Amino acid sequence: MKGLFRRSFRISLSFHVGLLLLLAAAGWWTGRRPPSSPPAVLMVDLAPPRPAAPPRERGYRPVPAHRIRRSTRKVRRRAERVRVPRADELRRILSEGLPPTRTAETPLSAALPDWYYAAVKQRLYEAWAQPPGSEVPPGTRVRAILTVQRDGRVLEAKIAQPSGLRLMDDSVREALQATTSLDPLPSTYAGNRAIITVDFVMAASPSL
């Protein structure tokens, strides 16, 4: 019985000693192996390529910002002056049948020019016999409206706002009746007839 126990003990001891020697040899062999290198990583740039800079012209050199100076010189342009003809010039032009020149590029207008209003007012004032200043105070006003055909014929002339003084109103009415034709409408006017308003104002003295 004792012999069987001793034999089992020896076998177990031999097994454990051999296992320890095998583990020690495995550890020694692992320590002598060179360390394995990490796997290589390949970097790939997926960004789109940058556009190439345009080629510079030969001889061109940009001016540095600190060398650019702002000019303080002011450029003045002369305003175009439009000369308005005088009353005597208007009478001469219209009497000769030569209205102010209009080129083919001048557009038609729905409004009469100022020089035509001045010519109509002068024609009516020449036909108006102002009443005596002793009976009509200066500044008395009468407004009249005239309808003028393209050829200058007066289709209608009436008093729109009387002054309330019979002598003043009658004098204006006589001037309107005496004026049956005016200068033809300007060629730049687009309509076939025009309605013109004229104010008769009593002056301090019976002068134009």
Give a verbal description of the structure:
The chain has 208 residues and is α+β, with helices and mostly antiparallel strands. It has a domain of 87 residues: Fusion Protein Consisting Of Minor Coat Protein, Glycine Rich Linker, Tola, And A His Tag, Chain: A, Domain 2 (2-Layer Sandwich). The protein is built from four helices and three strands; from the N terminus they run H-H-H-E-E-H-E. Strand 1 and strand 2 form a beta hairpin. The protein is rod-shaped. The relative contact order is 0.13. About 4% of the residues have low confidence.
What's this model, at a glance?
This protein has helices at residues 2-32, 87-95, 114-127, 166-178, and strands at residues 141-149, 154-161, 193-201.
* Helix-strand pattern: HHHEEHE
Largest sheet: number of strands, sense, barrel closure: 3 strands, antiparallel
* Fold-level CATH name of one domain: Fusion Protein Consisting Of Minor Coat Protein, Glycine Rich Linker, Tola, And A His Tag, Chain: A, Domain 2
Please indicate the percent range of residues in DSSP E strands (runs of 2 or more). 5-15%
**Helical content, roughly?**
25-40%
Which strand order spans the largest sheet, edge to edge or round the barrel? 2-1-3
